[in-house]
Amino acid sequence: MSNGNVPSADTILAVDFGTATTRVLLFDVVANVYRFVGYGEAPTTIDAPYHDASEGLRHALAELEAVTGRVVVDENARLLMPAAPDGRGVDSFVATSSAGPAVRALLVGLLPDVSLAGARQLADGAYLAVRDSFSLDDTRGQDQQIDAVIAARPDLLVIAGGTDGGASDALLKLVETISLACHLLPPNNRVKALFTGNPALQPRMQELLGRVAAVSVAPNVMPDLDHRQLGPARAALSQVYETLRVEQVGGFNELAQWTGGRITPTAQAEGHYVRFLSKLPEGQRGVLSVNVGSANTSVAAAWNGRLYLNVRPELGVGTAAANALGDTPLDQIARWLPFPIGDDALREFVLNKSAYPHTVPAEPEDLALELALARHVIRAALRRARPTWPENAPGPRPELLPWFSLILGGGAVLGRAPRPGLAALVLLDALQPAGVTRLVADARHLAAALGAVAYTNPLATAQIHDSLAFTDLGVAVAVVGRARAGEPACSVKLTEDGGAERELEVGYGSLEVLPLALGRTAKLTVRPRAGFNLGQGLGRGRTITVTGGAVGVIIDARGRPIAFPRLPEQRQALVQTWINKLGGV
Q: What domains appear along the chain, each with residue ranges and CATH number?
């Protein structure tokens, strides 16, 4: 994609503050088209001993300058804006963040299955740790409710309830109790509140809460019983969240001035990019994005521009790794390992990851453990997100993942995998997609940057997307069905443009890879056996044009859900076979 006129804001700097890592990305116009130019990263410094995000940013910018030879800050570490004719500085700056202390939230609604469910879905799309909820079904007395609010020490109240012109008294009584409790909070615990209910109640909300909270309002998340509109409320919640972050995180106040007052939550920026992709022909069957962070994991799914965003705060593969243990049996993590391990050793590894999130696997066993943990975290996040998706999303079976045209995997654990096949295998194992799906890895955290850029410069987002800055892993073809291990599941034939052909019969329970160089095209014919579904119906095949990626064309005939042998030795050998097929170690 190109444009005949040179864009006015040529150079764009994007920064993302993660819990463990701060990343900076530079975009510029090359031959009249926006392109990704360079990348730098450094440990995030919002915690002790710095307590200032700008220190980590300074180190990341120094790495970017060393890599690109471009100067973006002056001798006092201040951003040079706008760019000078000699190439120094940048023309625009965007920032995203998932870093910072947990935002403690309370949810308030009338009916648990209606307005409170809407408030919960709204909260699920943000970095909020929901400490409690209040509704008409709450059996606690007023004194108990007040004690609950004081114990939660909320940073944020999310209040929904009442359709447009609907009920009011019951909700006002709940808010009155919570307001009374907020009066008893420590003076430094200044609460923020977002009201997204019956608009007729907005003045009363200000009266009840104005003395104890900074109150913001948004359009009703449930204007009537048959419709739930999250978009406007999600945007308002994002603004409240940004304000909280600027107050809580050292250095964010100055950074917000560079960005015009906006530091977008990372998950929301990624969701904005996923929504954009779902409108393109390549995303016609839907787009799914998972980002596995150190302290948070987000899942964004979109169909034709409609976004479903879910964030699991305090669940990750770094500082929050210990939370992945929870009540889950450890064998749910160990089943992805090609070697035996005791519960104590596995638990010790996870706790060490939580204590030392910057450690990089030095041995194959450590790498396998980290990737097994990532699979477990992704599956946990997916279980939370899946019920919020539309029930009519087309797929092989209701309990399985819907068909998706594109799956995007982000986070350092995927981006730094030593071989692209390992990143592809984590996505296949954790998400278990069906049908024909393009797999892409976001090794440099581009999705958040492009989502933030899209708010003010959608042309840049479109052009950088077209520039193949992401790691294209290749096409995955997964047939859904059951058979005995080794029995034929499908036959495939790959015919490259140059005429070279490869044919293969794939047995049930196996993974196969057909080499196809990055950027090369070929015709792929897949013929499922009776009882297997590729997306066209049981036993119905199809021929499609595919383009090669870093891995090639992956044929996944392991069934959905993936079945494991009962004997540990057999399971471990099978997992090692899958790893070998995808070029792992």
A: 12-97 (3.30.420.40), 103-248 (3.40.50.280), 268-581 (no CATH)
For the chain, what's the residue count?
585
- Give the CA count within 13 Å in the CB-facing half-sphere of 136: 16
Indicate whether 9 pLDDT > 90. no
Per-residue exposure over 109-134, b if at least 16 CB sit within 10 Å of its own CB, e if not: bbbeebbbbbbbbbbbbbbbbbbbbb
Rounded to an integer, the average pLDDT of 120-140 is 92
pLDDT of residue 572: 97
- Mean pLDDT for the chain? 91
Give residue-wise pLDDT tens across range 182-238: 999 998 888 999 999 999 999 999 999 999 999 999 999 888 877 788 889 988 998
Residue ranges in 359-419 assigned as alpha helix (H): 364-385, 412-415
Return the bridge partners of 40, or none: 24
Q: Can you tell me the distance from the alpha carbon of 234 to that of 232, in angstroms, rounded to the nearest whole number?
A: 5
CA neighbours closer than 13 Å in the CB half-sphere of residue 517: 5
SS (H, E, C) 162-190: CCCCCCCHHHHHHHHHHHHHHHCCCCCCC
DSSP-H helix ranges across 125-228: 142-152, 169-183, 202-209
CB 12 within 8 A of CB 28: yes
- In SS3 terms, 420-435 reads as HHHHHHHHHHHHCCCE
Sign of the dihedral through C-alpha 518, 66, 37, 291: positive
Crossing angle of helices 458-466 and 266-278, in 10° steps, is 70
**Strand intervals (E) in 196-283:** 213-217, 264-265
Output the pTM of the full model. Answer: 0.92
Instruction: Indicate the SS3 state at residue 488.
Output: strand
Between 187 and 364, name the one with better pLDDT.
Answer: 364
Could you tell me which residues are beta bridge partners of residue 496? 522
Burial of 459 (0-12, 13-18, 19+ CB in 10 A): middle
pLDDT for 585 equals 59
Q: Is the CB of residue 568 less than 8 Å from the CB of residue 340?
A: yes
Residue 4 φ/ψ region, left for φ over 0, alpha for ψ in the -120 to 50 degree band, beta for the rest:
alpha
What is the tens place of the pLDDT at every residue in 422-458? 999 999 999 999 999 999 999 889 999 999 999 889 9
Decide: 92 and 37 in contact? Cβ < 8 Å.
no
> Beta strands 552-556 and 511-514: pairing type?
antiparallel
Question: How far are the Cα atoms of 339, 377, 445 from residue 335, in angstroms, in the given order?
Answer: 9, 14, 29
Residue keyed to tokens 């909280």: 244
